[in-house]
Write a structure and sequence with these properties.
Number of strands: 0
Shape: elongated
Largest sheet: none
Oligomer: single chain
Radius of gyration: 17 Å
Order of helices and strands: HHHHHH
């Protein structure tokens, strides 16, 4: 599991560093490791045959919304990277409020889709979804935090 998370974290960090399009990111990941995030999720979330279609339909919806939030996260990281050496107190406060809001939206998205997945599958599958998405998100957040320099007071 750790290997999968490191692969996904590397993908996300590459997107932060190079702001590649999602297609390029997926192509890079597939070329390097022969898998994508959906394959990682499929290794951990096990809906029954009767639940698979409904689960994957919802998962694709979730991913579309998550990717939109990911683009916003990349924009915020790029903004931080371009301003952190000269950021004023007001800019830092505004940036942090945007980060907090985006984190809430991301967490709420997972919670919302937990409920939707549970409604079309069962509690075990919904919990598997929640766990793997939470695990991936936490690993990515840690990787980002480890690579983003702390803001220094001028």
């Amino acid at each position: 599991m750790k290997r999968y998370i490191l692969i996904i974290a590397a993908l996300f960090l590459a997107s932060f560093a190079y702001t590649q399009s999602n297609k390029e990111e997926v192509d890079l990941l597939q070329a390097a490791f022969g898998m994508d995030k959906k394959a990682v999720v499929a290794d951990f979330v096990k809906p029954s045959d009767a639940q698979k279609d409904a689960f994957w339909k919802l998962y694709d919806e979730y991913e579309t919304q998550r990717k939109d939030l990911g683009k916003q996260r990349i924009e915020l990281l790029n903004q931080y990277a371009s301003q952190y050496l000269t950021m004023t107190s007001e800019q830092a406060d505004a940036w942090t409020k945007k980060v907090i809001d985006l984190q809430k939206k991301t967490d709420n998205l997972i919670v919302t889709y937990y409920g939707k997945v549970k409604a079309v599958t069962d509690g075990v599958v919904a919990t598997q979804f929640y766990q793997i998405e939470g695990y991936i998100l936490t690993a990515i957040r840690m990787q980002v935090l480890e690579n983003v320099p702390f803001l220094q007071k001028k």
